[in-house]
Amino acid sequence: MIPFQYFFPTTLKFGNGLANRAGELLKPLFRGKLLVVTDEGLIKSGVLEGFFASLSTADVAYDVFSGVEANPSTTVLERAVAFLKDHDCTAVIGVGGGSSIDTAKGVAAMATNAGTILDYEGYDRIPNAPLPIFAIPTTSGTGSECTASTVFTNKETLFKTVIISPRLFPQLAILDAELTLKLPPAITAATGMDALTHAIESYVSKQANPVSQALALGAVRLIGRSLRKAYYVGSDLAAREDMLVGSFLAGVAFSQSKLGNVHAISHTMGGVFNIAHGIANAALLPYVIAFNGPACPERYRDIADALGAEVAGVDAETAARRLVAQIVELNRALGIPSNIRELGVDLEHLPQMVADSMRSGNVLVNPRLTTAGDIERIILAAHAGNL
Ligand SMILES: [Fe+2]
Q1: What does the domain layout of the chain look like in residue ranges?
Q2: What stretches of the chain show up as alpha helix (H) in DSSP?
Q3: Exposure letters 88-120 (e unless 16+ CB within 10 A, then b)
């Protein structure tokens, strides 16, 4: 077993209806004014009415930045930081999907650090403590409410830049499954497959440890038993709870272990083609498992088992192949394409996709040693639909 450590400073509070008590939970945690970072669609949906009412009831002063976009760019971040400074906010809460929480982390960091967020690419490079960061996820996917990372697309190069720092862990994450009851099926599918990909990539990562693996496998079980239900019966609260806790567990796991080739490649699909992150992951996942299978079949057998496949007495290589078929079937059930051509990936950009993938730290922890040629072959296979 390799030496390992486990660091997780985020306080988690889980409970149905808890967002309606956010004000009283947040009030003791900071002084001054709170910046709520979210998106316009969520405000218009009315889902956050109880949250905003709780801020007023608890006498928490706040302003709202609602300009968050999917695959957030440095341009949006700069706008949000200017807004924070104009309004003298002293703490930041991301309320929404991963893009809102990632943007909140970036704003909190850039309120106290010089330059641009891109200067802090990589691991543990943020020198000054950010403003206090809090998070309330309204999707069950990114796990950003419990990770040390944030991602921004450089508008000039279209490279999705990952910034990882222990300073980016939120202080408090409020998990309220009632906020996710009205998520449309397509978003449930995309975000749920993102969470499942986190759990699977974390479990097989070279940097996995016994703590992260226990969390990752727990996440696979919860997501495996409830993703279809959450997709087909969105109002099923028990399924929504499983998905929210599952995505949280997967986030805690991968904040320790990093991810793998799926995320290395999918980030380029988000940056260059603006494809939804979870859908890109879902479509790539079977091809990466097929590539990795020979390197760690026993681990994939564990995952197939946790996902409910009949693998007792089956050799590990066969179980790993069954897992590929399981994921293909799950994608089909969730209406996700089985290749990346249908998502709009144009092979004209293949050299940039390969170069950007190799720049990702995730390739280094992928269980099978991966060269640029391997990445190119995985992308070509996923484009042609050749499993
Ligand atoms: Fe992800």
Answers
A1: 11-180, 185-384
A2: 22-26, 40-45, 49-57, 74-86, 98-110, 185-204, 210-232, 237-257, 261-273, 277-292, 297-306, 316-333, 350-359, 362-365, 372-384
A3: ebebbbbbbbbbbbbbbbbbbbbbebeebbbeb
Q: How far is the CA of 150 from the centre of ligand 1 (A)?
A: 11
Residue 336 CA to ligand 1 centre (angstroms) = 16
pLDDT at 217 over 90: yes
**pLDDT tens digits for 57-98?**
999 999 999 999 988 999 999 999 999 999 999 999 999 999
CA of 325 to the centre of ligand 1 (A): 21
Q: What is the rounded radius of gyration, in angstroms, for the C-alpha atoms of the chain?
A: 20
Query: Which CATH class name applies to 11-180?
Result: alpha beta
Superfamily of domain 185-384: Dehydroquinate synthase-like - alpha domain (1.20.1090.10)
